[in-house]
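Hi there,

I know you've been waiting on this one. I reran it after we fixed the sequence typo, so this is the corrected version. Both the input and the resulting structure follow.
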Amino acid sequence: MDPPRVPGPQGPGPAPGDRPLTPAERDDYARLRAREAVHHRRLRYAATSVLLILAFVLSPLAVVAAWADSQVSDTDRYVQTVAPLAKDPAVQNAVTDRLTTRVVDNVDVKGITDALSNALAKADAPPAIVDKSHLLEGPLKSAMTSAVHNVVNKVVTSDQFAQLWNEANQRAHAAVVKTLTGEGGSAVQAKGDAVVLDLGTVVDKVKQKLVDEGYEKAASIPDVDKSITLFQTDKLDDAQSGMRLLNVVGTWLPVTAIILAALAVWTAPAHRVTLMVAAVGIGVMMVLLLVGLVVARRIYLDSVPPTTLPPDAAAAIYDTFVRFLRDSTRTVLVAAVITAVAAYLYGPGRGARFVRSMSSRATGATGRAMAHSGLRTGATGHWLRTHRRWTTGIVIAAAALVLFLWNYPTAAAVALVLLITVLVLVILEILGAASTTNGGKSGA
């Protein structure tokens, strides 16, 4: 009996028994592939949508977190934040009035008039004068208030006060951390539902100035309350909890938002359109954040009693503390607008084609004019022309890296980087066009 035959290896070509697909089978196969392609495309769009939503939600939180982290970790940045308060007229008036009141309140004016009455009585002054000597209490207190106010105002409005203010904040920067975490024990601290600033150095300076002005008794003025309330709100505990969370993620939240937006663009079937959508969405979130800061300002001003802080001083303090947050928000907004416009200009739109055509004609004409005048770029220009996409990508990536590494970039910095990037791209286009004197011959 012959042994069974073992089939040999299958050679090229259709396997035994294969046959061409019938038209009906081809239709089924095409339908299945189309259905699978649609399903895959829907999955990519779904993933892109989720990533974009996360990036949109995190973008304003990332800006706030980065701002909060900079106020805590960067001493120079913090001093830059609070430095203008020392020269703000509304804040100076509030500090002057508060310190004047507290100094005068600690002077026993009634004791002075009583001592005057006793002295007059011992000097056998007329009883009518002795009995009415207590009426001097009001004018005496008013005169003392005016004199102390003038001295305090000279101190508070002086350049020396601004210098002391900056030096005190420089030394007390660690107090910012304690304020945000609800701890105390330093110049700036949280007490109950208020954030207060210790002005002990300024009070001592005022007392010394009073002595220098001839008020020797000022040296014996007892210690007064040396603090002034900067913020007062019943939501301070909630704000502190939120700030602690933001400080923890202050470094990684911005990076996370950028990565999510980049992943959304990479995952999407249409990269350019998704980039434009991401930029527009982040720009809208920045506008909402700016609106939120305006609303928060109104809420804050309504929550501060005039007896605690005058409205103009409260407004100056709020605007000073959040001005760098506003600047950062505007910077991200400008960057988002530039990104959206750039993504559009790379698209097939009529306006985009017109702009590209005009710029190409202008750079081409300039380059050819250089070549005709003898300034040909030769092989280098030819390489720039043939690798235009690579050079453009490198320049744009370098600009993005500069902005990413820039320490606290502003909207003006973004505009400057954009201008330099456009100039570099234009120069590269001109150098590429200068490799030929016409459309087909390379320069020697």
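Quick highlight: The chain has 17 helices and three strands.

Best,
R. S.
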